[in-house]
Amino acid sequence: MLGRKRRRMRHELAEIRRQHAEMINTWMREEQEPVPQPRPVEAVTPVVDDFPPADPRAPTRDDVKGMMMRRRMPLVLDGEVHACPQCGSYRDWIVFTLGDEVWLRCRAGHQALETRLDTAWFDRNSGPNETRHATFEEGLRHLGHPDN
Ligand SMILES: [Zn+2]
Predict the structure, then answer these.
(1) Whole-angstrom distance, CA of residue 86 vs CA of residue 16
(2) 57: CA distance to ligand 1 center in Å?
(3) Structural domains counted in the chain
(4) What pLDDT is stored for residue 17 in this prediction?
(5) Are residues 77 and 29 part of one domain?
(6) Is residue 129 one of the residues assigned to a domain?
(7) What integer pLDDT is reported at residue 134 of this predicted model?
(8) Fewer CB within a 10 Å sphere, N or C end of the chain?
(9) Which residues surround ligand 1, an ion (CB under 5 A)?
(10) What are the helix (H) ranges across the chain?
(11) What is the arrangement of strands in the sheet containing 68-71, beginning at the earlier edge strand?
């Protein structure tokens, strides 16, 4: 019963989204027209609190312990190409966040906190991140830096 209801609601939601997309397309085609008036508040579909979204939500900083990305290009910090203090390598980094901190990990697995970078920088430089990993090691493997 519940499953059928959910499916129906999901279908309705998809339909609403489709209509919205159509509306937006129409607006884009009619750019020369005046800005469309927002719909009155009463017309907004009520939101059901426990309704699961049709598409999995991309993880945000609030619900993951950390985020990571691979950065193959050299990192320029304060006008200088940053090199690993331990082995001197200067490209192919794993950049990851832990809370508000940004860490760098070189190909050889040396890790260091990088205070000149912050999470805002990370967000600007990382693409949409929709892959989640149970462990840090799994993330490293996924990004091509297996921890061996
Ligand atoms: Zn290193």
Answers:
(1) 55
(2) 35
(3) 2
(4) 81
(5) no
(6) yes
(7) 87
(8) N
(9) 84, 86-87, 106, 108, 110
(10) 2-29, 119-125, 136-142
(11) 68-71, 93-98, 101-105, 111-113
Helix (H) or strand (E) holding 69: strand 68-71
First to last CA, the chain: 49
Collect the ranges in the chain with pLDDT lower than 70: 1-2, 24-64, 129, 148
Quick one: pLDDT at residue 148?
Answer: 64
133 plus 74 within the same structural domain: yes
Which tens digits make up the pLDDT trace of 82-125? Answer: 999 999 999 999 999 998 999 999 999 999 999 999 999 999 99
Distance 75 CA to ligand 1 centre (A): 14
What share of residues in the chain are helix, strand, coil (percent, to 5)?
Answer: 30, 15, 55
Asked whether residue 57 is assigned to any structural domain, the reply reads no
Cα(85) to centroid(ligand 1), Å:
7
Angstrom distance (rounded) from CA 71 to CA 140: 12
What token pair was written down for 77? Answer: 């910090």
pTM here is 0.57
Task: Tell me, yes or no, whether 72 and 114 share the same domain.
Answer: yes
Using CA atoms, how far residue 136 sits from 34, 73, 107, in Å, is 50, 22, 15
Outline where 30-135 has alpha helix (H): 119-125
